Amino acid sequence: MRLKDYQRFKRTRYMPTLYEELEKDVRYREGLKACFNCGVCTAICPAAEVSDYDPRRILNIVQEKDETALEELLKSDEIWRCGECLSCKTRCPRGNTPCYVIQALRGLSIETGFFIESEQGRKQLAIKRTVGDHILKYGYCVYIDEVDLEMYPEQGPVWNWLRENRGSILQRLNTSYNKDQAGTLRRTSKKSLDDLKKIFDETGGTKRLEKIERYSSLKAKELDKDFKEGKDEYFRYLYNK
Amino acid sequence: MISRKNDIWAAYQKEIADDHYYFARSCIRQNIFPAAENLYLNILKDVLGKDIFDDIKQTTCTGIAYHSGLIPMETIMTVVARQFALMNEAGYENFVVSCVTSFGIYVEMLETWKHFPETEQKTREALKRATGMTFSIPKNLVHASDVIYKFREEIAAKSKYRLVNVNTGEPLKVVDHIGCHYAKIFPSHGIGGAEYPYVLAGLIDEWGGQQVDYPERRHCCGFGFRQYLLKSNRGYSVSNSKKKFDSMLPFKPDLIIANCPGCTFFLDRWQYVIAEQERITYGENGYGIPVLTYEEIAGLLLGNDPWDIGLQTHQVSVEPVLNKLGILYNPEQKYNGFNGENIGSPEYPQVLKCI
Description:
The complex is a heterodimer. Among the domains of chain A are: 1-119, Fumarate Reductase Iron-sulfur Protein, Chain B, domain 2; 141-187, no CATH class. Chain A contains 16 helices and no strands. Chain A has helices at residues 3-14, 18-23, 26-31, 40-44, 46-50, 55-64, 67-74, 87-91, 98-112, 119-122, 124-138, 156-164, 166-172, 190-203, 205-222, 233-240. The radius of gyration of chain A is 20 Å and the shape is globular. Chain A starts with a helix and ends with a helix. Chain B is built from 16 helices and 8 strands. In chain B, the strands form 2 sheets. Chain B has a 4-stranded parallel beta sheet, sandwiched between helices. A 4-stranded parallel beta sheet of chain B has the order 6-5-7-8. The mean pLDDT of chain B is 96. Classes of the chains: A mainly alpha, B alpha/beta. Chains A and B meet through helix 3, helix 5, helix 8, helix 9 and helix 11 of A and helix 2, helix 4, helix 5, helix 6 and helix 7 of B.
């Protein structure tokens, strides 16, 4: 099945309208009450300062309830520019939270598969294959074994020294690295990892991650990139560029 | 100006339990500054005589994945519920969170359950089906820095050092950086609220330092979650940190104190990157400005050896501030391994001066 046919199939089966889906998300209901477009959110926003991102504009599109404009938004880079600092929540004079609306839009963009239509949206695969996989493998979002200078050069020489000598240094610092006992960097038990996996299965987390993989495989094929697993060609393309 | 702000801060308070805490660890802090959380636990247990439980069963709260747009709200909500269930199992009611992102997550879930009660019910059902567990909401939920703030006077009374330059007798100029999710999302859950957060400024005041009130004091460090996690997007992160450094530079700070693991990491590492890429350094004589957490500063003032509390794992060398504080240390032991073995030392950056 071609990518566009697949997306159309998914939408006709599961999504009467995009707005109906959006309104199911409590973050959308909590985040957008009535925006009068004063622009304070954009003025305070760290992402707006350094990228092509304008939360005022996004809230305006969303509250107009134009289905076509919403679909364009879900396929755009813009919804992925937010850094989720939530400074906008503090400052909005109407009690809106543009970041919550962004969170709801991002979720819907993945559910509909529209995320692969934008360069930024596609990058969710790289986050899934790092943070997402680390959670279920280690019980941590980040773990020292996975953080090397090739992927994280800003970590610098002290980190490299720590990482390469972690057996000795982490013992000197009295951690529980790789040990089955309480303490810093302890090994997460199989029972706890199983609990996490079951929670992901039960609450849509597993399906969400699988969906990212499935849609991404279609896009990788379209872009003629090698798609397998882990840090394959498509991952490196998304992560680095 | 500072005095007037202190008066305003004093009006914003929150309840912080006195004892018997369940400790929720931080993913970033454990990895990047691996001695910090043990130090925190030791300060609470050994210095303050408090009971705090470090649970082997807990996991990540999944907050970084959530704020990167990766997982549904229902998933993180149920992971949070499991952490609460573990606290109940261990017999505790007061939940202390090491990470600011996690603190924001826990508060957000509690607030969501208040505003949308059906989400709490669904979470209870999901947790039961997935793990068989049930949970009660904590009586008290605070960030780890809140507890240090609560006992700042007791820590000062037991300290060997003050935040004072021993060479000049002047207070050290200290920048406080509060993680955005500490109070910007839910101001009533932060000491001093979002406008006048006092959780770290209170430590500076009590421990003898001088606050630095600079224009970009409340600006984000630039983590940005997915913006940092992708190599292609990290310009966002470093640009925001640089904005802060440029703004604080004219005030010549001696030290930065942070309460968020991510912020501590970025304010430390981006100084290295800015130095190597732009040939700009922010400390004195080509060094950076040391960036320490609240417990690392408390640990130093209480007389801990800097290398026993992991300060060698910071990229920005901490020796300039140790010298000002008059803290004695053995430079030969800085990069030793376990049992004093020689494991070599990190390479020197080309521009940022390091020891």
